[in-house]
């Protein structure tokens, strides 16, 4: 019998939940190899992603696309980490073509490039090529050749205020107009990421995939915390990866739980008729989490691992 359209849409999102779960599982297995128990960590990672209530609500209830672009973005970084840059750039291109917020993964990709120099910077040119390839059906259907890029630029400034649902720093300035503060917010985000990138590249630590997973959380959350007009779904990568990081670092257990619960409350009061919680309280909680993760990441660049010896096994 025919399947209802909404069920078909949800199934696509759910399939990409599994893709994202497998990618994060592969990362966790590599991180767990040094402990000789990679399958335990892999199973934990896979289960935490698939059973994450945000993934269930996002894909299974709302039929949203976060699992698609987040899964492809994580796959892109994983390929790059495995020294398969062309595959990685194709995955990133598909992710960005799916949703512009996939660019949140690019800071860690660029940081990894400047630190390792394992691929050519020219490999990044594959990303716009892939985006254009994905747009071929739309172009054949009559859209302009630059339809993808015009869509992206149209989105910038579409909403007149800095705050848009996600509890970040702009929650405390809800009346701040985008046309005045939008560019300043982008500059602030760029400055924070650039400072971290410079310190990262010049530190003498040897980083493992476990470190990169935590840095993925921080860089993507930096974008969600400071960029304007952030929706409650745009911190999706951090919300999927941080609980897995907590398997390796017990001090991340409470932050991971809090991050998921705060975002779940945003989903609940927006789509599930839950009682509303003050957006200022949610934003304050998110900012406390972000500042703690910031301290861990910056301090971890120079402590040679002393700050993260709280592994559970």
TrEMBL record:
Keywords: Membrane, Transmembrane, Transmembrane helix
Membrane spanning stretches: 6-27, 39-56, 62-81, 88-115, 121-140, 178-201, 256-274, 280-299
Protein name (record): Uncharacterized protein
């Amino acid at each position: 019998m025919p399947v209802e359209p909404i069920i078909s849409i949800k199934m696509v999102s759910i399939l990409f939940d599994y893709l994202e779960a497998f990618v994060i599982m592969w990362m966790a297995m590599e991180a767990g190899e040094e402990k000789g128990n990679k399958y335990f960590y892999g199973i934990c990672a896979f289960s935490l992603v698939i059973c994450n209530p945000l993934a269930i609500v996002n894909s299974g209830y709302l039929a949203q696309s976060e699992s698609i672009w987040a899964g492809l973005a994580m796959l892109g970084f994983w390929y790059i980490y495995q020294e398969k840059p062309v595959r990685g750039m194709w995955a990133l291109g598909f992710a960005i073509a799916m949703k512009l917020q996939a660019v949140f993964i690019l800071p860690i990709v660029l940081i990894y490039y400047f630190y390792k120099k394992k691929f050519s910077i020219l490999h990044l040119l594959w990303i716009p090529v892939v985006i254009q390839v994905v747009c071929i059906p739309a172009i054949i259907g009559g859209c302009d050749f630059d339809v993808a890029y015009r869509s992206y630029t149209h989105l910038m400034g579409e909403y007149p205020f800095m705050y848009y649902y996600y509890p970040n720093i702009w929650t405390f300035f809800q009346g701040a107009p985008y046309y005045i503060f939008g560019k300043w917010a982008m500059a602030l985000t760029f400055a924070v990421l650039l400072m971290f990138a410079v310190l990262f590249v010049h530190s003498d630590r040897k980083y493992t995939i476990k470190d990169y997973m935590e840095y993925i959380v921080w860089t993507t959350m930096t974008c969600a915390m400071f960029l304007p007009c952030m929706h409650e779904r745009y911190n999706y990568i951090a919300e999927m990866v941080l609980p897995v990081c907590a398997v390796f670092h017990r001090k991340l257990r409470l932050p991971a739980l809090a991050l998921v619960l705060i975002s779940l409350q945003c989903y609940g009061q927006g789509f599930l008729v839950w009682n509303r919680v003050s957006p200022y309280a949610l934003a304050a909680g998110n900012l406390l989490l972000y500042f703690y993760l910031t301290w861990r990441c910056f301090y971890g660049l120079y402590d040679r691992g002393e700050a993260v010896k709280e592994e559970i096994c």
